[in-house]
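Z., the sequence and structure:
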Amino acid sequence: MKKYITAVVAIVALFCLGACEKVIDLKLDEAVPLIVIDGGISDQNEYHRVKVSQTYSFTEPNKFNGLTGAKVVLKIDGGAQEIVFREVAAGVYESPAKFKGKPGSSYELTVTYDGKTYQAVSVMPARVALDSLTFKTFNFFGNNKSYIVANFLDPAGISNQYRYILKVKGVVEEDAVSEDRFNDGNKVANVIFYELDDLVKGDSVLVEFQCIDRNVYRYFYSLGQNSGQGGPPVAPANPPTNFSNGALGIFNAYTSGKRTAVIK
């Protein structure tokens, strides 16, 4: 009897193990494609670009799904000046000539595609100069880690928001934002938390320093939260756009300054 019971238990165990290996076919719903608009106007004398694309299924490879045939129009200060952008590549639209954006001016971008119109407004903030880049070392659990520091003077009595785009060997390695809620009017030394320890003597680090409006700050801050900047990631969600009519993306009128630091 004992041998019989043992044999039965063994057969049941094998059956259970086999059941655990059953492949479950998940039926995942496909989301409706959404338009994505990413554009900016800077205070630099350059061609300004707007990218118009569409979201795609999660089963497709990561790519830029550019939309051709969109109408892209920029209005400055309520229509005092109007610029029609031209398509220079699939989904990439460019101003017909170089020009400088002006701090304090309001920029309205209108994108029309497939019978629908999407609009966003961004006011270019006053320019704040990036004074210098320095290095700082922190000790974490007995290990020294080096980072770049952006140094500047924050204007007093004005709400300011900043964006830091860090590039190493031409590749964007960090894209972060900050605000002056706790250091209004002070000298600021903002640490950009990208480890520099893999770099060698002679390598250079470039930081683009942007002054951005409040809506643009909220967009990039939300992106950082989704990716875990400043703490554990939050539940994924689309960042708050400044475009109307359900479009994703951001339109950013900003001032720009760049500095380079060399590893010694």
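The CA atoms of residues 32 and 88 lie 27 Å apart. Residues 1-9 have pLDDT under 50 and may be disordered.

Let me know what you think.
H.
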